[in-house]
Amino acid sequence: MTSHLATYEVYSHDFDEVRRIDLVEDLEDKHLESVKREWSPRLDVCRARTVLAFCALPTKKQNEQAWREKEGRFGAPDSHWDWNYKKQSMLGSVHRIFALLDGESVEALMRIDLSKPSRIQPTPYTPIVYVDYLAVAPWNRPPIQSPPRFKGFGSILLGTAVSISVEEGMDGRCGLHPLTQSEGFYLRVGMEDLGFDPTCKLNYFEFSPDAARKFLEA
Amino acid sequence: MKIKVTKRDRSLVLNLSKREMSALEQLAERKGQTKSAVLRQALRLYESLDARVSQGARLVLEAPDKREKAEVLLL
């Protein structure tokens, strides 16, 4: 059962009107079915384009960096994410999941983990909100649809994560491993790039308390 | 942009000994958190470890010099 947290008025390019977007916690089966029905076919097409573009490269140039570049270009580096599994594998009070909804349409999703430590706080084991997964609907991604139906949903969900960090006494500390093509966004909002993390082959970013405060006040 | 996300509509009266309260206060001081935040974090940690151990994982603590390892039994 979802619980309603907030409503935002957001302009939609597709509908040429301001729509009321609901931020909710938890997902119902109908939302997961909607993601499977509406998101997956579009992301599968993007994935197929990525594979074709990658395979068209000379063998010498077929490396991990080239693969990530193609994934970013075709807008679906998360095409293998299974949101149904991400929901089912949530652990009690450790994980929380949020969605932005336009009526019944799922516009963006985020799962967070409250059991991870900070990597920039000098005191070891200072807890943070770790953003496990964050994705907007395919039609809200410029590489897939330009102009996108909605903009700004990444900021709203990141703001939700930082708000939880403040509520939990973590001073806004919030970390994540952004997909390569999203790194610019996280730098622009003030997160610190703490460099390459070999465990997941992505860079790790984190909000310091000061940067988180500025982000929430912006 | 800050929003109220968490509804805390359940409360609990917790009776602690002087020693337990002192431990909680010291943890809160060291972590720079409220006592409630420390207890919530402890719950999440316990829940997370308990789930892993229930699936057959072992919880092992290793000394800084890596010479000693000891399994922690989660009660």
Biggest beta-sheet profile of chain B? 2 strands, antiparallel
List the secondary-structure elements of chain A in sequence, H or E. EEHHHEEEHEHEEH
Amount of beta strand of chain B? 5-15%
Based on the coordinates given, report the CATH architecture of chain A. 3-Layer(aba) Sandwich
Main sheet makeup of chain A: 8 strands, mixed
According to DSSP, the number of beta strands of chain B is 2
* CATH fold-level label of chain A: Aminopeptidase
C-alpha Rg of chain A (nearest Å): 18 Å
| Number of strand segments of chain A | 8
CATH homologous superfamily (4th level) name of chain A? Gcn5-related N-acetyltransferase (GNAT)
Overview of this structure, please?
The complex is a heterodimer of chains A (218) and B (75). Chain A is built from six helices and eight strands, in the order ββαααβββαβαββα. An eight-stranded mixed sheet of chain A has the order 1-2-3-4-5-6-8-7, with helices on both faces. The model of chain A has no long low-confidence stretch (mean pLDDT 93). In chain A, 34% of the residues lie in helices and 30% in strands. Chain A has a single domain (3-217), classed as Aminopeptidase, CATH 3.40.630.30. In chain A, 36% of the residues are buried. By secondary structure, chain A is α+β, with helices and mostly antiparallel strands. The radius of gyration of chain A is 18 Å and the shape is globular. With 75 residues, chain B is mainly alpha-helical. Chain B has one domain (18-72). Helices cover 45% and strands 11% of the residues of chain B. Chain B has two helices and two strands. Chain B has helices spanning 18-31, 35-54; strands spanning 59-62, 69-72. Chain B has a two-stranded antiparallel ribbon. In chain B, strand 1 (59-62) and strand 2 form a beta hairpin. In chain B, helix 1 crosses helix 2 (35-54). The longest helix of chain B is centred in the middle third of the chain and has 20 residues, at 35-54. The radius of gyration of chain B is 16 Å and the shape is extended. In chain B, 7% of the residues are buried.
